[in-house]
Amino acid sequence: xxxxxxxxxxxxxxxxxxxxxxxxxxxxxxxxxxxxxxxxxxxxxxxxxxxxxxxxxxxxxxxxxxxxxxxxxxxxxxxxxxxxxxxxxxxxxxxxxxxxxxxxxxxxxxxxxxxxxxxxxxxxxxxxxxxxxxxxxxxxxxxxxxxxxxxxxxxxxxxxxxxxxxxxxxxxxxxxxxxxxxxxxxxxxxxxxxxxxxxxxxxxxxxxxxx
Length: 211
Fold this sequence. Notes:
Layout: H1 2-23, H2 29-35, H3 51-57, H4 66-69, H5 72-86, E1 94-96, E2 106-110, E3 119-123, E4 126-130, E5 134-137, H6 151-155, E6 158-161, E7 163-170, E8 175-182, H7 183-195
Antiparallel strand pairs: 1-2, 2-3, 4-7, 5-6, 7-8
């Protein structure tokens, strides 16, 4: 009887351990290969003109675990994403995980609404609320070469909310925080979080919109 009880307890411990490991997953080998690639100082930017790139860009991303957020790999990913988007050959205002081959909920955004317009990284980000007030505006995308756009698409814009409330994980304290973002920076957040759902800005172009 005692022996069976011990076996039962061992099974419960193993079950809990397995579930815990699922929640505290680490990056895959493929992701680590991309993150730690030292052959180039910049990360490859995925584009829709490449079939395999396009397939990844259209995927819905997954969240980062607490273990991943506290890993050296995540720190390296953040630094390399920012280094890539700020390089003079790229010169972007935001970049999302899928755009560098990492299908995770993480974006780097230039905060024009803060002094010095710093780039900041936001893991597990969601937009919790959109303002009813909207404004049209032209957009571009590192993953969508201009050569792929029609003349009409080049002229038209995308309607976005004037402000949004974002929710994301504080990577240091591992807690969920929120922030209200307005103006042009709110547009960047909307554009980048779209990438996390497999949506490109060209999907939202309105032919009748003249920003």
